[in-house]
Design a protein that fits this description.
The structure is a homodimer. By secondary structure, chain A is mainly beta. Chain A is built from one helix and nine strands, in the order βββββββββα.
Chain lengths: 153, 153
Amino acid sequence: MSPPPVRCVSLTPIGVLRTPFATLADCPRNGRALNPPPLCHVELAEGMEEGLESIEGFSHLILLYWLGGDFPRLLRVTPRSSDRSRGVFATRSPRRPNPIGLSVVTLEGRQGRVLAVRNLDCLDGTLLLDIKPYIARTDAEPAAGRGWLDAPP
Amino acid sequence: MSPPPVRCVSLTPIGVLRTPFATLADCPRNGRALNPPPLCHVELAEGMEEGLESIEGFSHLILLYWLGGDFPRLLRVTPRSSDRSRGVFATRSPRRPNPIGLSVVTLEGRQGRVLAVRNLDCLDGTLLLDIKPYIARTDAEPAAGRGWLDAPP
């Protein structure tokens, strides 16, 4: 087995996410927990607009963003839906070693370098790291097993 | 509109991905392009094993990893499946401003801090950034529109 990698990689945020959620207590449990999910906005940084060409036809996007905050990064967490702690890689907790958040959002429209989307659950002002088109053939697994989420209480 | 964010964030890889693909020319077009998709391995770094507790019950995982390499980061790219260039955020090209790769893989087994998975398409030795459980209710959009991928040639 190889030695663990130790070097760091660095990222520059490419924009900001605008949501109605000003505090962690405001954030819904997931991007589909509110009905209807509120309209949110992806504000790409200046100079990045060219990267959005041809994005309009996709109905869904994957957003990757930085889950900032000063809370500790943990290897075990106790999710709200669990009666005991779980390994952090078996959860979607933000308290992970590399705090990258992921949301599958619907694309509602575009004006220049601003996208309107739904299904976000993150704080207003969250730093955006990447936008990818959602491609069902490789990204959609509707029958995926839910692990401990389906375990009896 | 807010000014674009400028600060950097840094990540420490949490492990290494082991695939049969030694060069970029060996990598399949996507993780499902080979039939059957070969068995690959996720080697978590020492000290991280506790984060895998409770992961066994999930049938699918989302892996985030660092798409290294010295090629330039572009805002427009010409994918193999396109007859013209597209905005990079409308493609899954590795030549993106923040080169984070994403694969939805099947979890085939676990031995300590090593997971056996299928559906990876990345280079052997790729640095792992995060493991998330795949949760169909928020991650699966089987009817998602394919944008320019469905456009007539």
